[in-house]
Every structure is written in C-alpha cells, then in structure tokens.
Write a structure and sequence with these properties.
By secondary structure, the chain is of the alpha/beta class. The protein has two domains: 134 residues, Oxidized Rhodanese, domain 1 (3-Layer(aba) Sandwich), CATH 3.40.250; 113 residues, Oxidized Rhodanese, domain 1, CATH 3.40.250. Helices cover 31% and strands 15% of the residues.
C-alpha cells in the first residue's frame, strides 16, 4: 500500500521539474525552417500514419511503450524498468527539448507528457493540433523514418503524477478536497454506455469530455486556455484543489492532463481509470 495513504493529498507537493508549454504549427514550422537544435520530436500517432507521412525529423514512438496491462486494467503506468529503458533508448533525458504530437488531437501526446513528468524531463513542448493541424496548414510531410538516439537514463522516477486506486479510494472515503475530471463520453459518465463490469463514474467526478478542449470543427488545436479555465471554474469551486483526471485507460484523459498542466493546475492522473475502477466490486460508483 502506498505510503501516500498516511497523509492528506493536500499535503503532497507536486515536485515537478518539467516545464510544459504549447507551440502552434506555424511557430514550430518557423523553428524547423531555421534549424531546430537540441530537440527531439516524438510522433505518438499510429505507425501506418507515420509511414505515410509525418512532421519532418519526427521519431515514431509506439504507444504500446507507454502503457501496461494488469488484468482488466489496460492503461497502467509501465514498470520502472520499462520507463528507464524507454528513456535510454529514445534519449529522453539527454537535456534536449522534447516536442510532442500525435494524429488525433492530443490524447496520446498528453499521456506522453505525463510519462515525461514521471521521468523528470526538463522541457516539453506540445505541438498544438499535431498532424491534423500540420496538414490543415498545408505544411510538407516527410516519409523518412527517423531513428532515435540513445542517452543516459534516470535511476529514479517521480511517481507523484500517478495516483493509485488505493490512494484515490482513501481520498474519497475521507472526503478530502479533490477536483476529479471524467474525460469520457457523456454516455460512459452517466452509465448508459458500459465498457466494464459496472457502468457509471467515480463518485464526485465532474464531466469534461476530452474533445471539449479542442477545435473539432477545424484543426484539432486546443481552444483558448482562458475559456477552458472559465469552464472548469463553473464545475469546481476551488481551483487550488488537486485535480485528478481519468477516462477508460488514461488515453483520452492524457489530453485532460496536458490541459491542466498548461493551465498551471496541480494535476495527477489515475492511470487505472475506469478499466480498473469499473471492474472492482469493492469501490463505490455513481451513475444516473
């Protein structure tokens, strides 16, 4: 059982050294044209999409490298050994700025930002809208497969960004202050659509579907962060409380995590998400 259960989550310090920012494809293209230096560009999209065309210089990172399955729970944080090997193989802790994008509007890229928080990478930049925004703007694609460059890897991880089922259950039992975001569809949130043994949501969770944060009608870039903050303020009375995001597997909620980090909020992710919580008969659920 986690030692975090011995104290309130309000007493936990984020202790994150990673700086996460966002850049438009327009600004990124200008940087690339000027000669992007001391940077690693990671493509978290589908392998076949990468093969057809990707941002120039981008290295493909299969999303299977950033998830782990244990029973029903299919989106858990990878093991310490697996993450350290990933960091070594892709040079993630080489001190270079890491640029992230995917082909869907930020779910997998956001999860990767969460992984990089755990690894303690210093500087991470999300390429807003990813491949969709890049193509929408008409910029050229590359079909050249890039190979990652290995580097030293960290010996320890910062697991603060990951909250476990036992800790979350304790927080709910003790009615500790918490802003819980359910990033799934309205049907899943209300218990109408079922993808586990039980349907519904974690008690106290507010619904903010992951796609609500993006411009679905155009280039899949993030909507105004000021607008998103205002929308969250209508759901949560105290924005200084710790946020926890979840979905079914912490894929969709990857964008929710990234959104909260860009807003400067104290956020963690429940990677077990509903694939774990909804299949556990010993934890409470809420549905309509």
């Amino acid at each position: 059982m986690s030692h975090f259960l011995l104290r309130s989550i309000a007493s936990l310090e984020p202790n994150l050294k990673t700086q996460i920012s966002v850049i438009s494809v327009v600004d990124y293209y200008e940087l690339y044209q000027a000669g992007l230096k001391d940077a690693i560009v990671l493509d978290l999209g589908q392998a076949q999409t990468y093969s057809r065309g990707h941002l120039p210089g981008a290295v493909h990172l299969p999303v299977t490298r950033i998830v782990r399955q244990d029973g029903y729970a299919t989106g858990l944080m990878p093991s310490k050994a697996a993450l350290i090997e990933l960091a070594r193989e892709y040079g993630l802790c080489s001190g270079k700025t890491i640029y992230l994008y995917d082909d869907e509007g930020g779910g997998w890229a956001g999860r990767m930002a969460w992984i990089l928080d755990i690894l303690g990478v210093e500087k991470v930049v999300y390429i807003d809208g990813g491949l969709r925004a890049w193509m929408y703007a008409g910029y050229p694609l590359s079909s050249q497969r890039e190979v990652p460059e290995a580097s030293d890897a960290p010996e320890e991880l910062n697991t603060y960004p990951c909250i476990q089922l036992e800790e979350l259950q304790k927080v709910l039992e003790e009615n500790q202050p918490l802003n819980l975001i359910d990033a799934r569809s309205a049907g899943e949130y209300n218990g109408v659509r079922q993808f586990a043994q039980r349907a519904g949501r974690i008690p106290g969770a507010q619904h903010y579907e992951w796609t609500r944060a993006m411009r679905l009608d155009s280039d899949y870039t993030l909507r105004s962060l000021d607008v998103i903050r205002s929308e969250l303020q209508t759901l949560y009375s105290d924005m200084s409380n710790q946020f926890v995001v979840y979905c079914q597997t912490h894929h969709r909620s990857g964008l929710s995590y990234l959104m909260c980090r860009l807003l400067g909020l104290n956020v963690r992710a429940y990677a077990g998400s509903w694939s774990e919580w909804g299949n556990n008969a010993d934890v409470p659920i809420q549905n309509d």
